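Need tokens for this chain, all 534 residues.
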Amino acid sequence: MRKVALFFASSACRAGEPIDVKRLASEFEDSVDAVRVYEDFHDSSSLAEMTALVRERGISAVILAGRSPDHYEATLGGDHVAEELARAGVNPNLIIHANLAEHCSLPHAGAPAGVLFQKAKALTEVALLDARIRSAVEIVEVPPRRRALVIGSGAAAMVAAYRLVDLGIRVVVASASDGWRWSDAEKAHLAPSVSILEGHELCTLAFATQIRGVTGWAGDYETILAHEGATRRERFGGIIVAVGEDCESYMALWPLLQIDSTRDGRPYSRNAHTLSVRSTTSGVAIVPPPRAGEEALPRQTADATAAVLEITDLLNKPWLAHRVAVSKVDASHCGLCRTCIKVCAFNACSIDEHAGTSKVDERLCKACGNCVVACPAGARDLITGPTAQITGAIDLLAGVKLGDDPRVLAMLCAGCAYRAADTAAKEGHSYPASVLPLRVQCGGRVDMQHVLQAFEAGFDGVVIGTCREGKCHNIVGHLYLDRRVVLLRDLLRERGIDPERLQIMDISPHEGELCAKTLADFVGELSGAMSGAT
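Here are the structure tokens for all 534 residues:
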């Protein structure tokens, strides 16, 4: 049987309304193989004790009960804890987060201590369920190509390309424009560096060129470049997007690179405080346009230099480790119907005629789960979010009593909605504690059966949080969900369930206030409807 360790960060449980973490830890002493409470996971002595315990006891799964998974991934050096646990022998897919700060102590100002404790316990139990059910993932080591693609033709692109070749890295500068785009003031400062680029053996200028496709992962991206009707494929270790204030270009690149942006098209970084040029796509850096009031050239130069540092930090490593987080296929159930091929936006599915089953290209699959829901034979599942984990979590959360407010299951997509709830908490926005979050890979991963199960289990309402239209991290996940929801609302009516008890929340990661308001308003509407019914 898998050995599981449960580690609590007490600082996270004091981030907002305090949770009695020692009492909480005691609730799980008989459920796992080791329980420890630390002030903070990043403390060097605490991390050393955690990794030593993992090695000594043969721990194969670890639950980090503290901050959001996105907090650790989007903080400078925040991924160090997971990296050390992986070195100690824990498969990266078996490092599970219980979000006790952003989804419990922080957003529920004034909530009774007993309610917060029960919610924290439930979120930890969901993480434990996940640790029991998930499978280990294969790790692929990729030696990064020392070659970079710079997209853009303005000052930021020039600076980035110059810095790269100066470091001995081959670079292709690609842009739809027919040449450099700069002002007279910029030309006075940048003319020498551009002159060097135009004659440099490490630099290729590809103007009047469109980016038609990007596949692969950090260290080895295969890109399709189109010029005057002809296309060619080139491979790069990293990509820098430096298109300035051209929001239309960011929009055009979205299906290829999934760079988050605000509603007005401004690119949104992984962390504006410490990772301002890191996008949510590994191996892709951005040079944000200058804000109003900023002097453009100094800001663009500084950000372009930072983007180069971000990319060269990857390209200078001997290898990059990637999790093969694909949808897996049960060949004994596959009926070769080709539905998976039709619904996959990344062309990751195909038919292996020799083996008589569907197969998945690990370089193309994004593990969104659309094919899992669409498969009529039930032959597919996700390694990173198996069906048994979702259904088990729904039943577990349904059994939690949190005061008198209507209980709402919030199935939040990992790309946007889950992070929006994180943002709400960090910005100090509140919503009722009776909203119980469940992280899913994509809105398209939500099956109609999951929603029906939630209502049958006793939830008063269900929210499905997805990316905004046109901004889905999995391209079409929200579209497939929308189609299912139309049918589902009719099905709910047939079963005597008010379809208004189901709400779709399309949102961006930075829209914390909107997220909190949407959840609070929905609980209020349910409360009013329930009061009126009685």
